[in-house]
Design goal:
Largest sheet: 4 strands, antiparallel
Order of helices and strands: HEEHEE
Number of strands: 4
Strand order of the largest sheet: 2-1-3-4
Number of helices: 2
Distance between the termini: 15 Å
Number of domains: 1
Strand content: 15-25%
Helix content: 25-40%
Length: about 90
């Protein structure tokens, strides 16, 4: 599926499901950092800043469809978006 085919709701739904699979590992080692997940490949990057995690992920996967979450926090910002980088 092309990243332009995802709605924001679909990105969040997929992202949350992938995060649940990673939750125990990433919360133990990286609590409070930001996790950017490519919902298509399930590859991810962790960084102290949200923009850092996104930048690192896009450097490896320029067409990533990204879900961003702050690890271990319920109220941190969460975002889903479609990258138009390289298109």
């Amino acid at each position: 599926m092309s990243n332009s085919d995802y709605t924001s709701k679909a990105i969040v739904t997929c992202g949350k499901a992938i995060y649940q699979q990673l939750k125990d590992e990433v919360e133990f080692h990286h609590n409070g950092k930001f996790l950017a997940i490519d919902i298509e490949t399930q590859h991810y990057e962790i960084h102290d800043k949200g923009t850092g995690a996104i930048t690192q992920l896009l450097a490896k996967y320029p067409n990533a469809t990204i879900y961003l979450v702050r690890i271990g926090h319920r109220t941190a910002y969460k975002a889903g978006f479609r990258s138009t980088y390289g298109t």
